[in-house]
Amino acid sequence: MASLQLHLLPLSTGPCLPSSRFRRSLVRSSTERQALFNRIAPVYDNLNDLLSLGQHRIWKRMAVSWSGAKKGDSVLDLCCGSGDLAFLLSEKVGSSGKVIGLDFSKEQLSVASSRQKLMSKAFYTNIEWVEGDAIDLPFSDGHFDAITMGYGLRNVVDKHKAMQEMYRVSKAGSRVSILDFNKSTNPVIAFTQELMIDNVVVPVASGFGLAEDYKYLKSSIREFLTGKEMEELALDVGFSNARYYEIGGSLMGNLVATR
């Protein structure tokens, strides 16, 4: 069984709008969560590798592949964190393409920028890091050929608005690929997730002094959307097609939506 990773990637800092079937109550305020993500930035990558036994790299490659990004494309990685998906996208689009990594955490972006400078591959210079809000993207309509989001939608204050923004800034025919924990309707899978969080994730995080921060993971998964609800959300904002894939032994999931 695959191990779990935290991936507390950034969320919107915008206000919580009136509830709908696609929004859930907050377990932390935006300010608190932003501070949390800034605080874990220095150990973020090490913990992800440790907690997932490195498997998160496989899942991220799958997400990027599903995005359909290709040479010369202009692409966006939302809630980019320390930049894993952005670097994979950079390899896909090449030196003739452009990658924007957007995040609301300055510390995470600083880590991503530092990693970029240490990389030896020339085309990684095609990445630009932008501090911004997932529900108010600073880009024009129909700007991107592909969009990815890894472990971010679960933490966005207004998921419906975030999906609307992804729809708005994507080109006709392009794809959005969203990777996150799978909120399974299977009680065995749900129980396994909680068991591993309590007995693997939190104890390991304790070694980094982050036990209380990582306890947030369980509630964020409980309040997330199921695969069917993810598909409905994408279709609701205008995407022509949406399909949700369970991966990682059904512990993870990836939504692929076509504009």
Automatic annotation (TrEMBL):
Catalysed transformations (reactions): demethylphylloquinol + S-adenosyl-L-methionine = phylloquinol + S-adenosyl-L-homocysteine + H(+)
CDD domains: AdoMet_MTases
One example of a Gene Ontology biological process annotation: methylation
EC class name: transferase
Domain of life of the source: Eukaryota
Record EC number: 2.1.1.329
Compartments (UniProt record): Plastid, Chloroplast
PROSITE patterns according to UniProt: SAM_MT_UBIE, UBIE_1
InterPro entries: MenG, SAM-dependent_MTases_sf, UbiE/COQ5_MeTrFase, UbiE/COQ5_MeTrFase_CS
Keywords assigned by UniProt, alphabetized: Chloroplast, Methyltransferase, Plastid, S-adenosyl-L-methionine, Transferase
Regions annotated as coiled coil: none
Gene Ontology MF term list: methyltransferase activity
Role according to the record: Involved in the biosynthesis of phylloquinone (vitamin K1). Methyltransferase required for the conversion of 2-phytyl-1,4-beta-naphthoquinol to phylloquinol.
Family: Belongs to the class I-like SAM-binding methyltransferase superfamily. MenG/UbiE family.
Protein name from the UniProt record: 2-phytyl-1,4-beta-naphthoquinone methyltransferase, chloroplastic
